[in-house]
Amino acid sequence: MPRKRVLKTNRTVISYFNGTYSTRRAAIVYGIKRSTLQSRIKNILKKRTKEKYLRKHLENHNDSGNESEADNDSPKYSSKYTVRQVFTNEEEDELEKYIKRCSDINFWRTYTDI
């Protein structure tokens, strides 16, 4: 089962919006690319104002570094390849189980069979 990755971008965006760091300095401190930070800020500001984002995010922000599960308003980022994804995650899991089961019982399947 894949790990759930915690994004550092929310903490970085908050420190930028608070005026603690500039985009360049925040990117260096939190270890992300400056262009990534700039695109995240741009996407956030398309949807809401800086004050609204800070108010909403600081209510649910905890100091452990993990993002709150209740925060449904924060932007969700995904891979650029999810648009071209053929199977859903559940279908991929089923296919993975099938391939492993076939392998366990030595039932050969080629790539075209799968």
UniProtKB/TrEMBL annotation:
The terms describing its cellular component in GO are: nucleus
InterPro entries tied to this protein:
Homeodomain-like_sf, HTH_Psq
As one GO molecular function, the record gives: DNA binding
Q: What is this protein called?
A: HTH psq-type domain-containing protein
Q: Which residues form the HTH psq-type domain?
A: 15-43
The positions making up the signal sequence are none
Task: Report residue spans for region: Disordered.
Answer: 56-77
Species of origin reads: Ignelater luminosus (Cucubano)
Q: Which domain of life is it from?
A: Eukaryota
Major localization listed first in the record, in broad terms: nucleus
Q: Tell me where in or outside the cell this protein is found.
A: Nucleus
Pfam assignment, any one: HTH_psq
